[in-house]
Amino acid sequence: MEDTTMLDASQALFQDLTFTIVPTSLSEERIRTLTDDITTNGGAVLPFDSSVGRIDRLEEVTYIISATSDFPDYHRALDLMIHVVKPAWVDGCLKTNKIKNPRAYSPDPALFMSDVVVCCGDIPPGDQDAIAGGVFATGGQFTATLSKLTTHLIALNMDDERCQLAVNKRLRCQIVLPHWFDDCLKVGRRINERPYTLPDPEILNIEAGPIPATKTSPQIREATNPDPNDAFPPTPPAHLESPRAIRAFDSKKVMLGEDLNLNEHLKGVITGLIKAGGGQITTSIEEAHIYVCNYRDGEDYVKASQANKDVGNLSWLYFLITHDTWTNPMRRMMHYPRPRDGIAGFQDYKISISSYTGEARVYLENLVKACGAEFTKTFKQDNTHLITAHKNSEKCEAAEEWGVDVVNHLWLEESYAKCKKQKMTDPRYTYFPPRTNMGEILGSTEIDRDAVEKMFFSKTRKPKAVKAPAQPGGVPAPSIPMGRMNSDRGAHTSPLAEKTSRRTKTTGDVVTPAPARHFGGKENETPGTAGSRGAKDRANARLHESAPDIAQFEKEMKRKGGVIHGGRRNKVDEGSDKSKRKGGRDSTSSKRSIEEVDGDDATTEDELTEEPGKKNKKARKDKLTPIKYRMLLSKDERWANDPDKESKDKARMRELGLFITDDFRKVDLLCAPKVVRTKKFVAALACAPTLVSSAFLDYALKNNKLPPPEKHPIDDREFSKTHGFRLRDAVERAEQNKHRLLKDWTIFCTEKVSGGFDTYNDIITANGGRCQRWQGRTTNVTASKRKIDTQPQEVSQNQEEDEGDVLYLISEPNKSEFKLWEKFRELAKKHDMIPRIVKTEWLLFVAMAQYVHWDEEWELNEEVVNAMGK
């Protein structure tokens, strides 16, 4: 809960407290109001010196009022334990006449719910407690009562009393499902509320259409390229002089690093712009306030960073010139110097992206390269990773087929920010919120200054002199300081390391190897340790060297057919395969590749995909055949124990336009030797697919062309006799239902049901319903009646026999389930509904027939089970 400090009645609210107001993003009127409120209530306000851009007498300040964390003294204030709060903190204190908890009003970007005030509707108390705890932990506020300050009302439907009150009172709050907050926590960012907004949330609408493209994230504007040498310096704005303006270069000395490689003309233009802004150019790192360079190495970079000077790259410098306002270079990825050799482990990666356009695409392309990986515009089978904004694209389907890792951009950003490759096992990197374009939060990650300091300019390390490359004739050049070389690297290297770089040593040089940096969990290992520690270090080293092979093995295991029989690689010799991983790719090898057909990726001539060359002498340059049919197979055993043949046959079919998938949510053809009641078959019927027999695939494989589906229909005569309806009629109803057969239904299911909970969850979800696991806990779940509309509906099958007030529980005819049944009846009674405990047969019939129907033979009760002797 929120902490507050009680005050003596005779004491002013801000007595003995000292404030400074940072004017960034605040109007003159707002600053005057804050100043009056603070001084009237006993506080003192130290003026902010706009000409300096820093807070004078920072040690004397108790609270800093700022709308953003992007001001020069932010991190120093935190180190001094000074509270930094948003202006709303003052308003909150005055409203309650109490000192509010400053954490709830922090501008820290890591507290992504800091602007959120959450109120819950009629949802279970346990869920409310969980939401409240999560809101407080991420910087937001939770209130038990709905008020004008509420920004988000969390509810299950619009029938909730608080939802009706919010609508009637025209409160400016967003009414969202609890899923929104869950997904925010899963990705660690505040995501768009649009797909979760009641009364018609998109996440419950299977036919909602393609995920909309997003506008360019403001976090990456003018921060997409770390080395904008090709761009002419921008012109500063013709702004009016303002006493609150923070002048970027006023009274500042700027040093331009030699690794910028600026020509004299460009350097002269930049120098003139800095001087016009009140700054100076210096060649002394000791005198400089700002140091601009390309890479995180060199003597000057280390000295500037250790002295807490402002260190940024040319893109950051251009940003300051454009806006004439200081910004932290670590706030945006592409504003801070990049590591010369990228991030360890990325050199073996080949990364493509999907569903990003414009500046977002440019930003990610440059970030991939800055990490040290290879970026490919075309997605090929030998790619190691696909970074995507959502999973609704053909590239994602191909990645699943080829065993390529699919991640969101947070994995790339946080690996770069923390200077360390992040583990793919973290679910935040592989989670994609439904109906959400992750591009909306692109660039919200900041550089981790502690990680950068530890890796590149720790106080315990000093820059070293590096031997220059040999001059022509084999004569080594004299040693020069690192800060004066553009090709030097590794200011983070230990001073105990050899003076000659491994990359620049000449033949005959005798080099003493550098000590290991991180063995045993220590950065600086003392030489001459005991033999046991040395053995452990050598073992760790061998394990580290084997890591790429282990990762490759795990990737191959994901492929259909496993490591040996994947069937998706050309059989080339081991040497050529290694050369390809290092960048020298064999032009004769044939790899499948793919590009977006959705139109969301920028398509250029060099993005055209290549089909497998197979035995052809000339590589085919036409695009991969567009998908004509998406086929789901069920109970077809033609490839049992022969994954190599499976892979080749599926590749052949894909070239004909037939994509064989396991995703039952999007199916055009449903193929089986006969009508079966597997999970995939039953769930896929909701797509209203054309039902074909295995003979369809037999013909296609034999003749290398796709036959008309109607010539190979599935035989459902025996099924129709047994179950009383024809599948062709069910498919027609599915076409009308449009995945909404069970829309607004909540169906409960026990864990021990035959086939498993996930089976029935998938079937119910495919038909637009919601399946909830039933464990007998009535306090953690809720249910509501379905509205029955007497007017003619487009989907008559969904309304004809739906009683509206019946609550279903799918269970097993077993005495061990009796206790769960008793609790379920209590839940139904609590919500004024009729409990109905049913066999799995009920759901299978409804999903396959595609209309709601009831037969008493499906009902379960204690008498029936006792009679069965179970």
Summarize the structure.
The chain is of the alpha/beta class and 870 residues long.
What does this structure look like?
The protein has 25 helices and 30 strands. Helix 11 (394-402) links the parallel strand 18 and strand 19 (405-407). Helix 10 packs across helix 12. It is flat. The relative contact order is 0.06. The model is unreliable at 239-245, 464-539, 560-591, 595-622 and 790-797 (pLDDT under 50). Residues 560-569 have a biased composition (Basic residues).
Give keywords.
alpha/beta; Rossmann fold; four-stranded parallel beta sheet; 30 strands; 870 residues; single chain; 30% helix; 11% strand
Q: Residue-averaged pLDDT, rounded?
A: 78
**Neighbour order of strands in the largest sheet:** 3-2-4-5
Query: What's the overall geometry?
Result: flat
Proper CATH architecture of the domain at 736-868: 3-Layer(aba) Sandwich
Q: Class of the domain at 736-868 in CATH? A: Alpha Beta
Q: Count of DSSP E strands?
A: 30
Percentage of residues in DSSP E strands: 5-15%
What is the name of the CATH superfamily of the domain at 736-868? BRCT domain
Low-confidence sequence ranges: 239-245, 464-539, 560-591, 595-622, 790-797
Distance between the termini: 50 Å
